[in-house]
Design brief:
disordered C terminus; 4 helices; single chain; elongated; 71% helix; mainly alpha
Length: 112
């Protein structure tokens, strides 16, 4: 597999997972970019939700766990430099498009 095809594949995989994470976080009104929020979701703590939706919260938690798995696979397949470059681009795009909905008063880092 050529480098550009491989990078495009992993970029698409990461983008798909991150887009779904953002969607579910928006439904639950979870501010994923605030410190400690991702950890709270991973520990199954719905107190970080601004809107009660158990189905969306469960999906968000599962997607976050899957996001970490996909991220690790991307690092294995691409190497840390290429994977970081793809993740940086995706983070910037998501922050520009959805940052206000995912951030409270403080910014932090998400799963990817």
């Amino acid at each position: 597999m050529s480098d550009s095809v491989r990078n495009e594949f992993w970029g698409h995989q990461l983008d798909a997972v991150l887009s779904e994470i953002v969607r579910e976080a928006s439904i639950c009104q979870v501010r994923l970019l605030d410190p400690g929020v991702v950890e709270a979701v991973l520990h199954d703590n719905p107190s970080v939700c601004g809107h009660d939706n158990p189905v969306a919260f469960k999906k968000l938690r599962e997607l976050l766990m899957m996001g970490f798995v996909v991220r690790e696979k991307a690092f294995e397949r691409l190497g840390p430099l290429e994977a970081d470059a793809i993740l940086k681009t995706l983070r910037e795009r998501i922050a520009a498009k959805y940052g206000g909905a995912l951030r409270g008063t403080l910014g932090g880092s998400g799963p990817a």
